[in-house]
Design goal:
Blueprint (H helix, E strand, L loop, with lengths): L1 E8 L8 H13 L1 H15 L4 H7 L4 H14 L1 H17 L1 E3 L5 E3 L15 H16 L3 H14 L8 E7 L2 E6 L3 H14 L15 E8 L6 E4 L5 H15 L1
Antiparallel strand pairs: 1-5, 1-6, 2-3, 4-5, 6-7
Helix pairs in contact: 2-3, 3-4, 5-6, 7-8
Length: about 250
């Protein structure tokens, strides 16, 4: 049982080095508790929540909630401006264009002036929905990657050894044969599939996309991460250490 998940995006004012990517990815292991605690506040703010949302849903104090909200919008200033520009354009067009050219209609936005005390709640809500769709729709990248990968699998000698079992917004799950060659094939081609960045809307010299393969054995409670472009010998060492930790 395995999954490929957590698309990696590295953003900075200069093109990130491999060292930068490693540092970002290390958060998952070095600061596991803090990373888990940050998920609910991050998702809330990503989808247009406020410090009040953090107080109600997470139970944070007003001071801490405001501090987190301020830090979030400072860090993601460029993203906020991008979404705001798209919503402004939707007020003229009557729709927003999300992942892969899909259009989401926004008929109310075209009829009102946003950002005033007179803006109807329904129109403001439609704006939030459109803003959320601009980001969430790119979960389709996961579907695209799974389709590309399984297309290769079905034309390979491993067509009976690799089976998809679930896809969620940011992860794909597979059941594969307990065989090193099958694992190598999966790691090589699946990690390549999730690195796809050919759509002009997601091309950026400062952002690279990728993902990591997690293998779960003997059950879902015990996982090991297989880095991209790992050799057979390196995988053997990872498996050996994993088994040693189980005993």
């Amino acid at each position: 049982m395995l999954k490929i998940s957590d698309p990696i995006t590295s953003v900075s004012e200069v093109k990130p080095s491999q060292h930068d990517v490693v540092r970002v990815n290390s958060i998952k292991y070095l600061y596991k508790d803090q990373r888990q605690d940050s998920k609910v506040p991050t998702f809330a703010l990503t989808y247009d929540g406020t410090y009040i949302t953090l107080m109600k849903n997470v139970g944070l104090s007003e001071k801490l909630a405001k501090s987190i909200e301020s830090s979030y919008h400072e860090m993601y200033k460029v993203s906020d401006e991008w979404v705001a520009d798209k919503i402004k354009q939707a007020s003229k067009d009557g729709y927003v264009t999300v992942a892969f050219g899909l259009r989401l209609r926004t008929p109310l936005l075209k009829q009102v002036v946003l950002g005033t005390s007179k803006t109807p709640y329904e129109a403001a809500s439609e704006g939030r929905t459109a803003g959320n769709a601009l980001g969430q729709s790119w979960g389709l990248l996961n579907t695209r990657a799974g389709s590309e990968f399984m297309g290769k699998v079905r034309n390979s000698k491993y067509r009976l050894d690799i089976k998809p079992c679930a896809q969620i917004h940011d992860a794909s799950y597979f059941i594969i044969k307990d065989d090193l060659d099958v694992l190598m094939y999966t790691n090589t081609h699946l990690s390549k599939a999730v690195s796809w960045q050919e759509d002009p809307l997601i091309q950026n010299e400062h952002i690279s996309m990728s993902g990591q393969l997690d293998v779960f054995w003997p059950n879902w409670n015990h996982g090991m991460t297989i880095p991209n472009e790992t050799t057979v010998e390196e995988i053997k060492d990872i498996i050996k250490k994993h088994i040693e930790n189980l005993t």
